[in-house]
Amino acid sequence: MGLFLPLAAHAQERPSFVTYNHHMEEPGSLEAGLNPLFGTQRGGGSFLGAGVELEYGVKGWWTMELYLDGQATRGQGSAFTGWRWENRWRPLMLEHRINPVLYLEYARVTEADRTMREVVGHDVEAENAEPLALTRRAHEHELEAKLILSSSVKGWNLAHNWIAEKNLAHGVWEFGYALAATRPFTLGATSRSCSLCAENFSGGVEVYGGLGDMDAFGFRDTSHYVAGLVAWDLPGGTTLRLSPTFGLNRNSHRFVLRVGIAREVTWGRRGR
Length: 272
Prior knowledge:
By secondary structure, the chain is an all-beta fold. The chain has 1 helix and 13 strands.
């Protein structure tokens, strides 16, 4: 008989913030997270974006997430910017050389959103300099799809995401990419319990950016970023993440700092 009390589960949050890999949420587990983002802005005030994340393992092959987003811009105030509903499906449950995952998300957000969960099309720094008083009134209904390809190689996870996004009211499909290489600091585990042991840390690097749209595919008038990654798994199912991010061209924000905290609990009996 399954238990109906929440049981703590070891958090397995990926170190990367933008790039997804093939690891899914444990069936029956609910993870709550907060992911603040601080960004500098040429031509506008620096900003703080934040997303509250609720991730649930429906099945071993199906993970669902709900996001609630908001932001504050220096000298302009703050605003709730919308919500997102995400689903990921893993068609092949056994480990393969390349593990595909299908991703589909519906978002109802405003143009004031600053969470930068991905970069697509011609997303550039100058767009984020528009006043909050205007962008908070411009609502968007978006559909986003991703093909996630992920491999485990000698302790490393190598992941590549192809991204396609469309405003359902108007416009064309926009494209982007994200790549990450991550690894635990050590593959061995100590025999004693500790918080600062190397086995509790993982890190790596990710690169992501836009690839234009159906009318102008490519790197012209797009932005690109490189980010360092570190994650710390604490006892009891809490994970802390940090990612200093740097723009790679003049269309990008010079610097973005991402922080994440997530807590995972398990309800009832796990299923597949």
